[in-house]
Amino acid sequence: MPSVRSATIVGAGIAGLTAALALARKGIACHVLEQAPALEEVGAGLQLSPNASRILADLGLLEALGARWSEPDHILLSSGRTLAPLASVPAGAFARKRWRAPYGVLPRAALQAVLLEAVRREPLATLTTGRRIDTVEAALAAAPADLVIAADGVWSALRKDVPGALPARYSGTIAWRFLVPCATAPPVLDPRAVTAFLGPRAHLVAYPLAGAQAFNIVALHAHGQTPAAGWSRSGDAAARSRLLDAFSGWHADLRRLLAEARDPLMWPLFECPDGAWTDGGKVVLIGDAAHAMTPFAAQGAAMAIEDAALLANRLARASGTGPALRRFEATRRERVARVRSRGAFNRFAYHARGPVALGRDLVLSLRGPESLAGDLDWLYGYRTPD
C-alpha cells in the first residue's frame, strides 16, 4: 500500500495530467484542479523525444498518440544564411530501434487531449475546471488529500509555499511561434524533418504537424530588455521589426517566412532558477513549476513527463512521504541539471557567430549521423528509475 493514498494536483497541463494518470495506475487517488473553465492548451506544437514517448507508451497511450503525430525521418541542423545542411541525426525507424521508443511531433493540444481522455477513464482520477488555487491550503480545502502536487507552470502560485523555491526569471530570449499551412509552405521547409536553422544570436525551428496540416515555426532571438511577465502576446510593429532585425542577413526565403507570418505570437522565455522543489512532506513542485527551462534542448514537456513517472514510482514504493519526496527531488535535480547543461550548450552553438560559428560548422562536418546520435543516448535512452 502506498504511503500516499491521495493527491491533489493543481494544474491540468502536461505535467498535471501525466502525474494524475501515473499515480492512478499506482493505486493513488488523484483530484486535478484547473483554473481554466475549459482545457485549451496554449502553444502550437511540441517534440516528444524517446525518453518521453517511452513513458507515455508504458501508460498505454502510444496508439492514440500515433494517430495524431508524425515521426520525422531525421533532425537536421542547417545554416540560416545559406540553407546548407550542417549535420543530421536520424530519427524515424532509427529512433525506435536505437532508443526503443519513437520520436514524434504533434500539436501540444493533441497531447493534452490524449492525456485528458486517459485521465477521465481512470476510476481513481477526477478533474475540476474553473477552480483557481493560489495556496496549498486552498488546494487542500478544495480537495483534501495526503499530498499537494503543484503542476501550475512557470508562473506557479503554489511555489511561494515551498521554502527555498525561487521565482521565475527572464532568460534573455524571445520566441515567436506561428503556423505555415503545408499547402503554401516554401520548399525550404522539409516535411520529413525537424529542422533547426542556425545563425548569429538567433535560430529558427520548423517541423510538420500532421493534425494541423501545417508547419510549426519557432523563431528565437536574443532580446536584452526584460519584458513584462506573462504568456504569449501579439507583437506590435516595433517588436516585429526587432524580429526581422534579429534575422538580418539570413536567407531570403526564411526572412520572407518571418515577414509574412500570420498572427505570430511573441513568447518571452522565462526559466526557474535552481531552488527547492518540495517542503519535504505536504507539497511538491513538478514540471515548469519546479524547473522551467528554455527550449534549446526541446525537453520541457519531456522533463514534465519524466517528473510525473518518477514521482509515481517513488510515492508507490516509499514507506513515508518525506523520504519519497526527498528521493524524487534528488534524482530529478541531477537529471534536470544535465538537460539544462545540454540546452545551454545548444544555445551557445546555435547562436554562435564569427570564428566560433566556423569552428562549429567544421566540427559538425566531421561527425556522422550515428556518431551524433550516440551523443544523445544519455538523453533519449533514459529510463525512469523504479
Automatic annotation (TrEMBL):
UniProt keywords (A-Z) are: FAD, Flavoprotein, Monooxygenase, Oxidoreductase
**Protein name (record):** Salicylate hydroxylase
Required co-factor(s) are: FAD
Tell me which SUPFAM superfamilies the record gives.
FAD-linked reductases, C-terminal domain, FAD/NAD(P)-binding domain
The record's listing under InterPro entries reads:
FAD-bd (IPR002938), FAD-dep_Monooxygenase_BioMet (IPR050493), FAD/NAD-bd_sf (IPR036188)
All copies of domain FAD-binding, residue ranges: 8-338
What the entry lists under Gene3D superfamilies is as follows:
FAD/NAD(P)-binding domain
Coiled-coil region(s): none
Species the sequence originates in: Shinella yambaruensis
Q: Name one Pfam family in it.
A: FAD_binding_3
Origin superkingdom = Bacteria
The answer on whether this UniProt entry bears the keyword Transmembrane helix reads no
